[in-house]
């Protein structure tokens, strides 16, 4: 059964994002290796709290941009009040599972 979420309702967006958080989680060290292979500079701090990432931490890398990496608690706090990416302001429906019915 497909759940229906209202993209204009912050609670619905937040609930839908929670259903996909495990897919978005990555170890920061894995992201470091990926950026290193591509010779790209990796973000070193969470743009929400401004604390540095630690290689052993689980972080969330959004699909709107590979550079959009956040601490999980920071991102959830952000999404509890906003429905856009904290950096590019893209509506966070990009982070929702494809099988969800957004109306």
Automatic annotation (TrEMBL):
<keyword id="KW-0175">Coiled coil</keyword>
<dbReference type="Pfam" id="PF13639">
    <property type="entry name" value="zf-RING_2"/>
</dbReference>
<dbReference type="GO" id="GO:0008270">
    <property type="term" value="F:zinc ion binding"/>
</dbReference>
<keyword id="KW-0862">Zinc</keyword>
<feature type="coiled-coil region">
    <location>
        <begin position="14"/>
        <end position="41"/>
    </location>
</feature>
<dbReference type="InterPro" id="IPR013083">
    <property type="entry name" value="Znf_RING/FYVE/PHD"/>
</dbReference>
<protein>
    <recommendedName>
        <fullName>RING-type domain-containing protein</fullName>
    </recommendedName>
</protein>
<feature type="domain" description="RING-type">
    <location>
        <begin position="46"/>
        <end position="89"/>
    </location>
</feature>
<dbReference type="InterPro" id="IPR001841">
    <property type="entry name" value="Znf_RING"/>
</dbReference>
<dbReference type="GO" id="GO:0061630">
    <property type="term" value="F:ubiquitin protein ligase activity"/>
</dbReference>
<keyword id="KW-0863">Zinc-finger</keyword>
<keyword id="KW-0479">Metal-binding</keyword>
<dbReference type="GO" id="GO:0016567">
    <property type="term" value="P:protein ubiquitination"/>
</dbReference>
């Amino acid at each position: 059964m497909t759940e229906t979420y209202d993209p204009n309702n912050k609670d619905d967006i937040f609930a839908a994002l929670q259903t996909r958080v495990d897919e978005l989680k990555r170890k920061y060290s894995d992201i470091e290796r990926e950026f290193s292979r591509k010779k790209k500079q990796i973000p070193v701090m969470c743009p929400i709290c401004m604390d540095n990432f630690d290689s052993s931490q689980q972080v969330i890398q959004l699909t709107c941009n590979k550079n959009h990496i956040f601490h999980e608690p920071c991102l959830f706090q952000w999404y509890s009040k906003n429905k856009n990416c904290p950096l590019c302001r893209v509506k966070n429906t990009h982070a929702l599972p494809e099988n969800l019915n957004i109306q």
